[in-house]
Specification:
alpha/beta; five-stranded parallel β-sheet; four-stranded antiparallel β-sheet; about 230 residues; Rossmann fold
């Protein structure tokens, strides 16, 4: 059984004019345990929406997202929050770090929503991503590349089985982008986690053994939009 299976999911969003165009219409996508997959697509193609549906942040209008056989949208909201904390790691493009907390506190807080706080592991993760000397600094004191490294450590804090990465190099320069992608892939391998990353950057995509096109995955939605 695949770790992740997407089966005929649709998602639409209402517009002020009363229409509700279908943004996501993905028939099938599967990801095995420990597999690394990139999804290619330009801005506005639905990549972030797809990740949010997988994470249970959004609920599909129809269809199913199954992770280890569990249908995410069928869970109650509290159960979904617990499931997300224990099963998924999410690396956001905009980092989503809490500015009033230190690097270490950002990772510890993520742990508090999962199996429990493990300070030695949090410190070890930050050291692993090259931030052993920045444990007590706040995000505003760090460069963009360093902040993304904190986000990577936080995503791996609860030993997730699947890591989602949404344009993780979008705010980084060329050198930092390459380092962060290498870091995400390496740390996922070490943790035994599968990785699903979305990007529009051809150089980032070229590093992955399997690349899916968002346009191809979402062909039905694209056809509807073109006909509208």
């Amino acid at each position: 059984m695949a770790l992740l299976t997407i089966d005929r999911i649709q998602k639409s969003f209402p517009r002020p004019d009363g229409t509700a165009p279908v943004v996501i219409d993905v028939q099938h996508l599967a990801l095995d345990a420990r597999e690394e997959v990139a999804v290619a697509g330009e801005s506005g193609s639905g990549k972030s929406t797809l990740l949010n549906l997988i994470a249970g942040i959004l609920t599909p209008d129809s269809g199913r997202v199954l992770l280890e056989g569990i249908e995410v949208s069928a869970l109650s909201e509290p159960a979904r929050d617990r499931w997300r904390a224990a099963t998924l790691g999410y690396v956001f493009q905009s980092f989503n770090l809490l500015q009033g907390y230190t690097c270490l506190e950002n990772v510890l807080l993520a742990m508090s929503f999962g199996p429990g706080v493990d300070r030695p592991r949090a410190e070890s993760l930050l050291q692993r991503v090259g931030l052993g000397g920045c444990l007590h600094q706040r995000p505003s004191q760090l460069s963009s590349g360093q902040q993304q490294r904190v986000a990577v450590a936080r995503a791996l804090a609860n030993r997730p089985r699947l890591v989602l990465a949404d344009e993780p190099t979008g705010n980084l320069d060329h050198r930092n982008a390459g380092e962060v992608i290498a870091l995400i892939r390496e740390t996922c391998r070490e943790a035994g986690a599968a990785l699903l990353l979305v990007s529009h950057d051809r150089e980032v995509l070229s590093r992955f053994p399997r690349v899916e096109s968002m346009a191809a995955l979402n062909r039905a939605a694209a056809s509807r939009e073109a006909a509208a």
